[in-house]
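Structure first, sequence second, as always.
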């Protein structure tokens, strides 16, 4: 895909979502100047491919993908894939609760790997986005993370948009877990944090991490945590 074609995708998405192109650059490419770098030919092919995949995963169902551009298949569990499969008609809260129930059942049956997978399915269900790029169900996300709605609204108040510039959460805190979940889900209000967390974007377990130590809560029916060194470094601001 040419630089002009990628920039055209970015502009179309920005118009539909009502976002600045620099904000879309942070979401798709990890930096506000992403499309300027694309125009100047100063991005790697790998980063371009990742950006194109991001657009495919998050492309609004009501917006037609340009017919002259090859679209990669949306990844399973992405908003676009879920919408195409009709999954968005399912109540996210019920989907989360069903996944958590399955996680408990698998944990009780001595299947920690199955419990972990069910926990991740709960997060996927809870982190679905509305057409405007925001979390579809606050209740579902909070249930998936085992956090109260007060935590969600506090994070939105403190970190959404440009209010979050220069602010940090305490590593492993409830606010930290919620902010990571919203960023990982691709909520457009938290695009400014995407650069700092892009290395762990695909690691949904980071959203469940309660601290930096490696431990497996899945065997107890609780959310799994990540012992990833990259996650710990980013969480500590290093």
């Amino acid at each position: 895909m040419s630089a002009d074609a990628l920039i055209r995708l970015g502009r179309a998405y920005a118009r539909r979502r009502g976002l600045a192109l620099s904000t879309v650059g942070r979401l798709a490419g990890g930096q506000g100047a992403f499309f300027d770098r694309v125009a100047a030919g100063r991005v790697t092919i790998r980063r371009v491919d990742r950006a194109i995949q991001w657009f495919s995963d998050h492309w609004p169902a009501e917006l037609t993908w340009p017919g002259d551009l090859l679209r990669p298949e949306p990844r399973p569990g992405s908003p676009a894939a879920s919408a195409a499969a009709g999954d968005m008609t399912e109540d996210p809260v019920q989907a989360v609760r069903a996944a958590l129930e399955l996680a408990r059942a698998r944990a009780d049956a001595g299947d920690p790997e199955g419990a972990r997978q069910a926990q991740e399915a709960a997060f996927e269900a809870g982190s679905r986005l509305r057409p405007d790029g925001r979390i579809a169900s606050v209740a579902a996300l909070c249930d998936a993370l085992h956090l109260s709605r007060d935590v969600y609204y506090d994070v939105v108040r403190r970190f959404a948009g440009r209010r979050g510039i220069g602010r940090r959460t305490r590593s492993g805190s409830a606010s930290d877990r919620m902010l990571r979940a919203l960023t990982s889900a691709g909520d457009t209000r938290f695009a400014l944090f995407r650069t700092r967390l892009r290395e762990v974007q695909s690691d949904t377990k980071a959203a469940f991490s309660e601290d930096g130590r490696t431990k497996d809560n899945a065997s107890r029916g609780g959310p799994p945590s990540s012992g990833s060194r990259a996650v710990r470094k980013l969480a500590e601001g290093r």
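Margin note: The chain has twelve helices and no strands.
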